Amino acid sequence: MTDRYAVIGNPISHSKSPLIHKLFAEQIGQDISYEAIAAPLEGFAATIDRLRSEGYKGCNVTVPFKFDAFNCATELSERAKAAQAVNTLIFEGDKIIGDNTDGAGLVRDIEYNHGVMLKGMRVLLMGAGGASYGVALPLLTTGASLAIANRTASRAVELAMKFPDAAIRGGSYAELEGLQFDVVINATSAGLTDSEIPLPTGIFAPGALAYDMMYGRETPFMKFARQQGARVADGLGMLVEQAAEAFYIWRGVRPETAPVIAKLRTLQ
Ligand code: NDP
Question: Which residues have CB under 8 Å from 188's CB, separation 6+?
Fold first, then answer.
């Protein structure tokens, strides 16, 4: 019998996840189905109940339901607890196991696809919303030194304080004056409105990587980084890598991501 999976969001018609998982399944030769489901805004829990009663094995969860998924899980991974959000659910009998693969996807994209090993690197994470919460622990786990900056500085400080044992700085963009980083990650949604982030010039160390979690468009951050001489990457690789991590959790096999990223680039 075909094992069934889905991604749940609202809206969801734009999602690339069904295509990504179809390509993974074809590559590995596994018989799975994976569909996009739009849940009503107040209907996430009911949608999960339906999927479980119909025998689905798990699902991915995207905007705006990652927090609902966190709340409906009966067990949580450490990285889901740190993220306070869940993007992958596994249905096992009575259990609903919640995980978050966004951070692992980001780290894998930076380290393996862009060739920047993060241990010992000075990393700046911009933003203190859901995406930053999702990636902060996985970034710290690499051994990178982390600073977090956000438009609302208090939210960056709050996120930094979640990790009292690690030396993380949290604050405003103005406080970055005079500092340099090897990797600068844009986890804000500023690119959606073509807004510039007030980064000081000189923020990029020589050879630095500027990484924008957004994909499908050149953001003002990417333009700024290019002008400053940084190497620029978008978030398409992260999208595919977080999906590969979910596939691995469900199926126990890690698909090759490079051909899938290449295929998606041809469709952009
Ligand atoms: P949230 O709404 O939770 O947070 C938005 C963040 O962006 C806040 O820190 C906010 O600052 C900041 N922000 C918004 N507008 C501006 C602006 N004009 N200038 C400076 N800062 C701004 O969003 P998410 O964290 O969920 O998502 C952020 C981005 O990450 C999205 O674009 C999303 O597409 C992307 N993403 C990509 C993934 C991938 O796989 N590639 C996975 C997950 C997310 P403040 O606190 O001051 O409001």
Answer: 126, 127, 129, 150, 151, 197
Cα–Cα separations (whole angstroms), residue 223 to 76, 200, 226: 38, 14, 5
pLDDT of residue 164: 83
Domain ranges of the chain: 3-100, 103-236
CATH classification code of 103-236: 3.40.50.720
Domain 3-100 sits in CATH at 3.40.50.10860
Give the global pTM. Answer: 0.96
Q: What residues flank ligand 1, with Cβ below 6 Å?
A: 102, 127-132, 150-152, 155, 187-190, 192-193, 195, 197, 213-215, 235, 238-239, 242
Out of 16, 22, 57, 66, pick the active-site residue: 66
Q: Report the nearest-CA residue for atom 44 of ligand 1.
A: 131
Task: Say whether pLDDT at 1 is over 90.
Answer: no
The alpha carbon of 106 and the centre of ligand 1 are apart by a number of angstroms equal to 15
- Identical fold at 3-100 and 103-236? yes
pLDDT tens track for 142-168: 999 999 999 999 999 999 999 988 879
* Strand duo 88-92 + 95-99: pairing: antiparallel
